[in-house]
Specification:
By secondary structure, this protein is mostly helical. The chain folds into two domains: 89 residues, no CATH class; 48 residues. Helices cover 78% and strands 0% of the residues. Helix 5 packs antiparallel against helix 6. 6% of the residues are buried.
Amino acid sequence: MIFLPIFVAVAANVLYHVASKSIPAEQNAFMGLVVNYATALTASAILFLLTPHEKILVEASRTNWACFLMGLSITGVEAAFVMIYRAGGELSTASLIVNILIALAMLAVGGIFWHEQITARKIFGVLLCIAGVVVLSTK
């Protein structure tokens, strides 16, 4: 069942980047985020109500620091992509370059904090990713 969430993640990310690039340049980027989060809040509340759950206060009591950090990081990601696209970043490559750099950072994070093995295959992949970023970044 991993394929369905992967498909949803890919489809949602494609829509996300199309929407990020389409936010009017005249609009304050953070007002756009206010509308984004109002929409996300509404959709999340509806999905919460439609899925199995405990009482709302029980569910809320299970919240930890990670939920707040994720909210802040999502704000950073969204603001950054709006700025990337407003600065002329291309839809076809901006997300790819950012996601390659994220993958490189996550390899280090996984190795340092979760003691995931960094194998020769992963190092080779890192080198290919770096080469890809260089190729995509040069004009």
